[in-house]
Amino acid sequence: MEKNKIGAKPLLYPMPTTLVGANVSGKPNYLVIAYCNIVNYNPPLISVSLLKNHYTLLGIKENRTFSVNIPSAEMVKTVDYCGLVSGHKVDKSKLFNTFYGALKTAPMIEECPLNLECKLVRTLEFPENEAFIGEIVEAYAEQRYLTNALPDIKKLDPIIFSSHDYNYWKVGENLARAFHVGKELISENE
Amino acid sequence: MEKNKIGAKPLLYPMPTTLVGANVSGKPNYLVIAYCNIVNYNPPLISVSLLKNHYTLLGIKENRTFSVNIPSAEMVKTVDYCGLVSGHKVDKSKLFNTFYGALKTAPMIEECPLNLECKLVRTLEFPENEAFIGEIVEAYAEQRYLTNALPDIKKLDPIIFSSHDYNYWKVGENLARAFHVGKELISENE
Q1: How confident is the model at residue B87 (pLDDT cuts 50, 70, 90)?
Q2: ipTM of the complex as predicted
Q3: What is the DSSP letter of B155?
Q4: DSSP state of B131
Q5: Which residue of A9, A99, A109, A157 to mutate against B (max B Cβ within 10 Å)?
Q6: Best label site of A66, A87, A161, B124, fewest CB within 10 Å?
Q7: Does residue A9 sit at the B interface (CB-CB below 8 Å)?
Q8: Phi, psi (5° rounding) for residue A88?
Q9: Which of A8, A47, A160 minimises the CB distance to B14?
Q10: Topology (CATH level 3) of domain A15-188
C-alpha cells in the first residue's frame, strides 16, 4: 500500500446537493449548496455554509429564517442552473413554486420532495464562508415520498455531489442495514 | 400537491459515512459519524459533530488533532461495528492498520481509500453534540482511487447513510456534470 499525498483540499464523499432558500427584500431566492449537514440531533440543528458574497446570505440575515430543500434527480438541470447564476443578477423566484410554513419568511420549493424550515440560531464566521446554524422547526414531504411516515431515500431520489471533478450522481443500491450488519463482529471482538 | 408536516427531525439526504479517528491516551480509536461536512473552501475546514459522551472526543481534545477517513462499501461490516461499540468499552485500535502523517497524533486508516488529516481549529458547543472544526492539512489516497490526481467517487465507492430508517447505500449512476448541465437554461431565463 502506498498512500499519495494529494494535497490539503476540502474533499468529502458523498456530499448532498441542497437548495437553500431565503427571502431577499421580500422575494424568494434559491442557491445550490453542498456544504450542509446536521450538527445536533435534538433539537435538530442544521448547518449551511455559504460564500460571503452569496445573495441568499442577505436574506438569511434579514429574516433570520431559511430553508433547506432536497431536490430530486429529475430536477438536476434547474438545480444546476441555480448554482450557475447569482440572485444578484437573475430573479430565481420564478423557477419553482414557493410555499411558506409557520415561520412565514422561509420560502420552500414545492417541487422538492423534502423541505426543512429553519430558524437561524447561530452564525459562524470562517475565512471565505459564513455558516448558518438553523433549528429545523418543521419538515415537509408529500405522502408519496414516505415509507413508515419517514422520508425514503429511494423515493426522494436525491442528488449526490462530487466535488473537485464536479459531477452529480444518483443513489444506487442498498448496501446494508445500519447499526445491524456489524453485530456479528461483536462476539468475535469481545 | 399536498405537503405533510412530518415533524422537526434532523433529516438530510444523502449523508456521508465517515470514520473519525483520534488517539485516546496514545491509542487510536475510530468512530462512525454521518454529521460531517466541509464548512470553508480555503483553507479547507471540515466539521465533525459528535455526541458529548463519545470516547473519540477525549482524544480530539487531548491532541487537538483528528482524522476523517472515508471507508469503501466493502468495509461496511467493520464500519457498522465501529458505530455499535464504544471505545469506552472496546479497544478498536486493532480493527484497522493505522498510519500517521505530519501531525503525528491523528491516526488514519490504511484500508480507507481517502484520509483527511486534521488540525483542530475551533470547537462548537451544541445542546447534545460538540462540533470540531478541523483544518485539513493533508489528504491521502492510493493511486488506484484517483482520476486526474483527484479522488474518483466511483473508485472510492463510499457509503451513503440514510438517517432515521438506518440504512447504508452505494453511489449509483452518473447523473450530470455540475456547473454545466444547467447552462442551457441561462439563455432561456435571461
Answers
A1: confident
A2: 0.96
A3: H
A4: E
A5: A9
A6: B124
A7: yes
A8: -60, -30
A9: A160
A10: Pnp Oxidase; Chain A (2.30.110)
